[in-house]
C-alpha cells in the first residue's frame, strides 16, 4: 500500500507542477489576446480560476496522501478515524487516503446534506 500511496503522491505532484507551469506560461494578456472585448476578459478570468482551482484540489489530495503515509508509518492506516473499524480494501484501493469507512462517510455526508423537505 505504501508503494501505491507514493505512486499516487508522485502523480499528483506532477499534475501540480504541470498546472503551475501552464499557468506561468499562459499570461492573462495572452488569453485575452488584446481584443479588449469584455467577454474575452471574462473568459480569461474563468480559465485562470479553473487552473487555480485544479491546483488547489490537487494540493488538498497531496496533503491527504501525506497524512495517509504518516498514518501508515504509525500503524494507523486502514482504520476508520471515527469508529476504529477496518476500512474495506476496495475503498482504500479507490481512495488510498480515505480516513473513514463507507458507513461513517455516509453518516457524515447525510449530516452535511441540506434538508430535502421544503420550508413552509
List keywords for this structure.
single chain, 120 residues, mainly alpha, Methane Monooxygenase Hydroxylase, Chain G, domain 1, 2 domains, 5 helices, 69% helix, 0% strand, flat
Q: What is the topological layout?
A:
Elements: H1 2-25, H2 28-32, H3 38-74, H4 89-94, H5 102-112
Assign a percent range to the helix content. 55-70%
List the uncertain runs: none
CATH topology type of the largest domain: Methane Monooxygenase Hydroxylase, Chain G, domain 1
General shape: flat
What oligomeric assembly is this protein in?
single chain
State mean pLDDT (0 to 100 scale): 82
What is the strand tally?
0
Q: What's the helix count? A: 5
CATH architecture field of the largest domain = Up-down Bundle
SSE-based structural type: mainly alpha
CATH class of the largest domain: Mainly Alpha
Q: Can you write the helix and strand succession as a string?
A: HHHHH
Radius of gyration: 20 Å
Strand content: under 5%
Q: Report the end-to-end length measured between terminal Cα atoms.
A: 51 Å
The total domain count is: 2
Strand count, sense and closure of the main sheet?
none
Describe this structure in words.
The longest helix has 37 residues, at 38-74. The protein has helices at 2-25, 28-32, 38-74, 89-94, 102-112. Helices cover 69% and strands 0% of the residues. The protein has five helices and no strands. It folds into two domains: 1-75, Up-down Bundle (Methane Monooxygenase Hydroxylase, Chain G, domain 1), CATH 1.20.58; 78-120, no CATH class. With 120 residues, the protein is mainly alpha-helical. It starts with a helix and ends in an 8-residue tail after the last helix. The mean pLDDT is 82. The protein is flat.
Amino acid at each position: 500500500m505504501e508503494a501505491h500511496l507514493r505512486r499516487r503522491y508522485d502523480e499528483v505532484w506532477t499534475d501540480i507542477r504541470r498546472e503551475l507551469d501552464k499557468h506561468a506560461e499562459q499570461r492573462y494578456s495572452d488569453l485575452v489576446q488584446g481584443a479588449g472585448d469584455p467577454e474575452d476578459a471574462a473568459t480569461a478570468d474563468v480559465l485562470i480560476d479553473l487552473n487555480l482551482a485544479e491546483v488547489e484540489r490537487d494540493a488538498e489530495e497531496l496533503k491527504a496522501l501525506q497524512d495517509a503515509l504518516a498514518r501508515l508509518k504509525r500503524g494507523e492506516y486502514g482504520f476508520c478515524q471515527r469508529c476504529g473499524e477496518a476500512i474495506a480494501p476496495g475503498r482504500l484501493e479507490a481512495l488510498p487516503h480515505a480516513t473513514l469507512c463507507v458507513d461513517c462517510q455516509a453518516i457524515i455526508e447525510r449530516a452535511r446534506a441540506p434538508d430535502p423537505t421544503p420550508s413552509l
